[in-house]
Each structure stands twice: as structure tokens, then as C-alpha cells.
Automatic annotation (TrEMBL):
GO terms for molecular function: ATP binding; protein kinase activity. It comes from Labeo rohita (Indian major carp). It comes from the Eukaryota. Belongs to the MAGUK family. Keywords: Membrane, SH3 domain, Transmembrane, Transmembrane helix. Residues 308-389 form the PDZ domain. InterPro entries: GK/Ca_channel_bsu, Guanylate_kin-like_dom, Guanylate_kinase_CS, Kinase-like_dom_sf, L27_C, L27_dom, L27_dom_sf, MAGUK. SMART domains: GuKc, L27, PDZ, S_TKc, SH3. This is Peripheral plasma membrane CASK isoform X15. Residues 535-707 form the Guanylate kinase-like domain. The chain crosses the membrane at residues 54-73. Residues 1-128 form the Protein kinase domain.
């Protein structure tokens, strides 16, 4: 309005999109405005003019007369209803509306804009010119709708008013849900809201909510005893009808149970001896409606919920929980082991505070003492706890885009280090830990704890989970150990690895070699189990001189239809009778350097002023022929090879075992030492380890391993699949 006067002219706001059109002016099509008030031509993105305003006014008039929207539904369903122009005037709302008013609504909501009533025709409609204008012109109108006083109260800061407005606005968003129900449902809702008993209950609630009560004192916990005393008193009046009725009431089982429950609650919750976090409520208002408090749940929040938990423990099975002390020195359930006794029973939850164990207070006791007490207990065990009411722990089951169907996938990892909880001083409970070795498959059950995950070894009969160090904790541990090593030991280790392959003094990897020159913090590798498939590459690792070349040549000679070796590239000139592509591919130095810069080589090196290298493309060509490429490379090359493209099967050929009484061969000792260092450093990449005590037996075991891996299910890195 232009001013506060009742007769003030109306000011129109168009939010920057309103324009003034001529009588027959049109606007280019487009959906502009609130969806419920859009005209059909707007929804269909057709050119539109003034009739769309009449349609919007018709929707508003429909709402004012009936309290319902003419069109409702989700966005597309709403647009479909508007385009059809179908709406329903339910008799319950429209039964008291005059035919003249209905006629105006129908003409304003005509589907065809050309047939729709105009603004001037609407102003001259009998319903508007008649009853409405007569009501506005009445002398009584100003007594109700007169100009407002000069000063009006400001409700903008009233939280109750703003909250009510918010609820009204929120309810408008749900109008379509209310109007979408059937006539039968509407009748049912009307009958419910008009029910006399419901109104009585609501009145009772209002009275309770506002009624004050005297200061609350701790209730007595002797109701059962007082009932017995009353029964003794009325026994002196056996013929009195009232005494008989009272005796019948007091001796009813349900009433006796009610009195007993009252005594238990009064003693366990409100008595001075009760265990509580905060004092009992003392508000004189039953629902906390005093000026000092606006919390209607004060009674509930101020009372500690003490619970008794009891179960039987007749075996040596651990309970499957670990404890900790919080900042207030309260004993808290730190974790619950998946599959353990407590987890199966569901009696405790993470965060529960333990006050007593079999009547023994846990105060002034250490976690170690309490854990020992739990291990040694047998028979009936009772905990007095303060529940945490936390949500249940999350399980490590995730959804990934699978190969065929959409289903929940459990998380499995391959251990890349050895772990013994007995030797770990950091673990909260040594008995709860899991011992594993390099290569073991572990199912991850829970990762809520940042330092200690819960997991269980795959293919073990024991379904109880145990504690394993998280990757972050293990990396921190390894880094601390590495920092404690002396600089001389690190230099000695680097010097030793610098002696590999003397004939290839300057040997480098094509990609990311620096990663292996630094501390490699390996913990777990996420894996997935796949059905049997053929590995594309056979990688033979081992100390120099352990016999890998002989094994490679033997396999290719025996099985030329299965195995092949990628022919290396070199920059040296071909010798007499040497053919390009038979033993070597001969390339220029510039060409090889260009290919190296393009990361086309798996590995390369120099020897006697010439360069040699294995090109990745030669490996791919072997795969295209359906053969398995055999590689005897440096272990650092696995950084490039361990992908789905090359799908390697990594076999470590260990040095022969040195038994007492053997000749002290210096080369054999060197071989043994280098083999041990390789195994210690790269064992987490090995799929199979074979000790080369006898070459023919080693080849036989290798052939069996290759056949087995191609015919059985396999655990592979998850990066090969997803």
C-alpha cells in the first residue's frame, strides 16, 4: 500500500521482471513465477500476455474461497495438471459458496486465454459488484477494517509470533500433500479432529502444562511397607464395605507391582544414595514453565539413567570390550569387538559409563586392573552402567559400482607388514589384538577408532574381530623407528643396494623411481577377490645370481606356446650376423632418449657406452599374442607393473638354504644376505616365494603355482577392478 490509510492506492512490485503491456501485447515464452500460479501458456513456454495475470488471480481467489490449491503435486505432475486445466470443487469446501462466486472462478481459470475473462469483465462481474462491494461500502466495515492507529505494536522481535508465521509458511509447502488425499481420508481426518475425547485430552494437557506444583522433594521409597501397614489397620474392620474395597485394591497384583516399581524408581533415581550425574529436579513447575526455565524436559535431563546389565560367562571366551578412563576419571566402554560376547548380546554400547562390576565400584582402579578382573570372572556378571544412548557402531561395508549388480561390498586388505600384539606396548588390550603375517587377508569390520581398527583374518573359524593398528598408527611407528636408526646404518643400506647388477651401473626406472629411494611406509593394501583368470605377466624377483635367467629360459623352451620374453632395445651397433628384432632391437641413441623421456621404457641402463632397456610396447605385443611375458627385473619396476594392464604374478626366488656343515662359500653367503634384504624390503609384493635349493624342483614348483593361480579365485589390488 502507498500509505497506512484503508483507501490508499496499491503499489505493485514485479521483482524486476514485471512489464506493462498493451491490450494485445505478448511476451516471449518462458516459465517465470511460482509454479502453482503459472498459467497453462506459461507452463507450455508459449508467448503470453495479460490473461496470465487473470489466471493467477483466479488461483488466489480459489484459495481464498476454499482454503485449497486448485492444482497440486510434484513439479512435473503439477505442470501436467495445469496444462489439462482440471481442478475439483469439493462439496465440503464449496457447498457454502455462491454460484456467482464459482462462476467467476471458473471464468478466470479458463484453459484458453482467448476465452478467459478479462480484468475489466471481472471487475464488472455481478459477484464483485454485488455482495463484495456492498460489504465494503457498509458503515460497519470501518469498525472492523478501518484505518489502523498511528502506532502499532511491533511484533518483529516476538519469537512466538515469528515462530507461528514460520509454521504457517512451512505448512503452505505441504498443502499439496493434504489435498492429495482421498475424500474418504478427508472425512476420517475431520472426524478425528472433531472427536470430543481428543479435545478433552488436549484441554487436560494444557492444564498440566501450565499448572504449578509445590517444591518437589525426594519421594519416599516405602510405598510397599506403608501399604502393608494399611492392610494391618483395616484388618480390624472386617465387616466394613469400604475396608473390603480398599483391601481388594491393595492386594491386586498390578497395584502391588506399581507400588514396588515406585519404590525402585524413588530409591535408584531420587534418593541421596542414588548414583547421579546432576541433582534431581527442583522446579516448582511440572513441565519447567517457570520464568527461570523454558526447558520442558528438565525432569528427564537432570536425572541419571542408571541401568543394570547381567549375563552369564562360563567359558574362557573374552567379553570383547576394551575400557578407558575419560577426563573425569570415569570408566567408559572404549570399543566393542565385532562378533564378541558383548556384541552378540547387545548389552553394552560404546560410550557407556561403568559404575560397578558385581557390586564392586570401579572408582580408583586402573584399566589394566579392570580388564584383568573381567578376564577372570565366571558365572553371573552384573554391570551397573550409565547408558550413553549412542547410535550403533558403523560397519565397514560400502557400496561401490560393481561389475554386474549393485550390492554391498565388504572391505578386505592384504597385510604388508608383520604384527604381533604381544610385543606391542601401544595396544589397549593385548588379548584383543590379532597376530598376522605379510600377505594375510584381513576383513575390516570397524574403523571408528583413529588408531585401532577392528578386523578378522579371512577363512578363520573364529568370527570375533580383533584389534589391528590403523595405517596412520603404523606409519607413525615406522617413521619413529626410522628416525632412531643411525646415519651409518642408512648409508650402509644405500651402499649395499648400489651394488646391484654391476654390468648395468647406471640403472634407472622410467617412472617415479624416487619413491623407492625414500622410506616406503607400507601398511595395508585394499584387495578384492576375483574368480580365476589368467595373469598376463610372470615377474621373477631375486638376488643376482640366484638362477632367474636359467628358470626363465627353461620355461620358454618347455612352453613356447605359453611364455615369451620381451626382446630388449639397445643403442649399440649390431654385430655381424645379428638381425634386428631377433635378440635385440637396434635403435639410435637419440631415438632411445626420446622414448625414455616419453616414459616408454619399463627400465633401462648403460653398459660399455651403450644403452639397453625393456620397452613397454614389447610387453604389450606379447600379451596381444595371448602369451605370458616373463620378466626378471629389479623390484622397483613393480611400481609400473602392478596394474590391471600387466596383471603380474610376482614370484620371489630365494637363495638356497645354508645348512651347518656346508663349505663357507663367500658368494653363497653374499647371495643369502642379498636375498634376505630383498625379502625384508619387498615381501609385501610377493605372490609366491620359492627357495631355490634345487633348480629342477624350483621350476616344477613354479609351474604348479602358475597353473594354480590361473584356475582358482585370486585376491588382487582393488585398483585393478575399480
Amino acid at each position: 500500500m502507498a500509505s497506512k490509510e484503508n483507501s490508499a492506492p496499491v503499489k505493485l512490485g514485479g521483482f524486476g521482471v514485471a512489464i506493462q503491456l498493451g491490450e494485445s501485447g505478448l511476451v516471449a515464452g518462458g516459465r517465470v513465477g511460482t509454479p502453482h500460479f503459472m498459467a497453462p501458456e506459461v507452463v507450455k513456454r508459449e508467448p503470453y500476455g495479460k490473461p496470465v495475470d487473470v489466471w493467477g488471480c483466479g488461483v488466489i481467489l480459489f484459495i481464498l474461497l476454499s482454503g485449497c490449491l486448485p492444482f497440486y503435486g510434484t513439479k512435473e505432475r503439477l505442470f501436467e495438471a495445469i496444462i489439462k486445466g482440471k481442478y475439483k470443487m469439493n462439496p465440503r469446501q464449496w457447498g457454502q459458496i455462491s454460484e456467482s462466486a464459482k462462476d467467476l472462478v471458473r471464468r478466470m481459470l479458463m484453459l484458453d486465454p482467448a476465452e478467459r475473462i478479462t480484468v475489466y469483465e471481472a471487475l464488472n462481474h455481478p459477484w464483485l459488484k454485488g455482495a463484495v462491494l456492498a460489504a465494503v461500502s457498509s458503515h460497519k466495515f470501518n469498525s472492523f477494517y478501518g484505518d489502523p492507529p498511528e502506532e502499532l505494536p511491533d511484533f518483529s522481535e516476538d519469537p512466538t509470533s515469528s515462530g507461528a508465521v514460520s509454521q504457517v509458511l512451512d505448512s503452505l509447502e505441504e498443502i499439496h500433500a493434504l489435498t492429495d488425499c482421498s475424500e474418504k481420508d478427508l472425512d476420517f481426518l475431520h472426524s478425528v479432529f472433531q472427536d470430543h475425547h481428543l479435545h478433552t485430552l488436549l484441554d487436560l494437557y494444557d492444564k498440566i502444562n501450565t499448572k504449578s506444583s509445590p517444591q518437589i522433594r525426594n519421594p519416599a521409597s516405602d510405598a510397599v511397607q506403608r501399604a502393608k501397614e494399611v492392610l494391618e489397620e483395616i484388618s480390624c474392620y472386617p465387616e466394613n464395605a469400604d475396608a473390603k474395597e480398599l483391601r481388594r485394591i491393595l492386594t491386586q497384583p498390578h497395584f502391588m507391582a506399581l507400588l514396588q516399581t515406585h519404590d525402585v524408581v524413588a530409591h535408584e533415581v531420587y534418593s541421596d544414595e542414588a548414583l547421579r550425574v546432576t541433582p534431581p529436579p527442583t522446579s516448582p513447575y511440572l513441565n519447567g514453565d517457570s520464568p527461570e526455565s523454558t526447558n520442558g524436559d528438565m525432569d528427564i535431563e537432570n536425572v541419571t539413567r542408571v541401568r543394570l546389565v547381567q549375563f552369564q560367562k562360563n567359558t574362557d571366551e573374552p567379553m570383547g570390550i576394551t575400557l578407558k578412563m575419560n577426563d573425569l576419571n570415569h570408566c567408559i566402554v572404549a570399543r566393542i569387538m565385532h562378533g564378541g560376547m558383548i556384541h552378540r548380546q547387545g548389552t553394552l554400547h560404546v560410550g557407556d559409563e561403568i559404575r560397578e562390576i558385581n557390586g564392586i565400584s570401579v572408582a580408583n582402579q586402573t584399566v589394566e586392573q579392570l580388564q584383568k578382573m573381567l578376564r577372570e570372572m565366571r558365572g553371573s556378571i552384573t554391570f551397573k552402567i550409565v547408558p550413553s544412548y549412542r547410535t550403533q557402531q558403523s560397519s565397514c561395508e560400502i557400496s561401490r559400482p560393481p561389475i554386474k549388480d549393485k550390492f554391498s561390498i565388504k572391505i578386505y586388505v592384504r597385510a604388508q607388514f608383520e604384527y604381533d600384539p604381544v610385543k606391542d606396548d601401544l595396544i589397549p588390550c593385548k588379548e584383543a589384538g590379532i597376530r598376522f603375517r605379510v600377505g594375510d587377508i584381513i576383513q575390516i569390520i570397524n574403523k571408528d577408532d583413529h588408531n585401532w581398527w577392528q578386523g578378522k583374518l579371512e577363512n578363520t573359524k573364529n568370527g570375533t574381530a580383533g584389534l589391528i593398528p590403523s595405517p596412520e598408527l603404523q606409519e607413525w611407528r615406522v617413521a619413529c623407528i626410522a628416525m632412531e636408526k643411525t646415519k651409518q646404518e642408512q648409508q650402509a643400506s644405500c651402499t649395499w643396494f648400489g651394488k646391484k647388477k654391476k654390468q648395468y651401473k647406471d640403472k634407472y626406472l622410467a617412472k617415479h623411481n624416487a619413491v623407492f629411494d625414500q622410506l616406503d611406509l607400507v601398511t595395508y593394501e585394499e584387495v578384492v577377490k576375483l574368480p580365476a583368470f589368467k595373469r598376463k605377466t610372470l615377474v621373477l624377483l631375486g638376488a643376482h645370481g640366484v638362477g632367474r635367467r636359467h628358470i626363465k629360459n627353461t620355461l620358454i623352451t618347455k612352453h613356447p606356446d605359453r611364455f615369451a620374453y620381451p626382446i630388449p632395445h639397445t643403442t649399440r651397433p649390431p654385430k655381424k650376423d645379428e638381425e634386428n628384432g631377433k635378440n635385440y632391437f637396434f635403435v639410435s641413441h637419440d631415438q632411445m632418449m626420446q622414448d625414455i623421456s616419453n616414459n616408454d621404457y619399463l627400465e633401462y641402463g648403460s653398459h660399455e657406452d651403450a644403452m639397453y632397456g625393456t620397452r613397454l610396447e614389447t610387453i604389450r605385443k606379447i600379451h596381444e599374442q595371448g602369451l605370458v611375458a616373463i620378466l626378471d627385473v629389479e623390484p622397483q619396476a613393480l611400481k609400473v607393473l602392478r596394474t590391471a594392464e600387466f596383471a603380474p604374478y610376482v614370484v620371489f626366488i630365494a637363495a638356497p638354504t645354508i645348512t651347518p656343515g656346508m663349505n663357507e662359500d663367500e658368494s653363497l653367503q653374499r647371495l643369502q644376505k642379498e636375498s634376505e634384504i630383498l625379502q625384508k624390503t619387498y615381501a609385501h609384493y610377493f605372490d609366491q616365494t620359492i627357495i631355490n635349493n634345487e633348480i629342477d624342483e624350483t621350476i616344477r614348483l613354479l609351474e604348479e603355482a602358475i597353473d594354480l593361480v590361473c584356475t582358482t579365485a585370486q585376491w588382487v589390488p582393488v585398483s585393478w577392478v575399480y
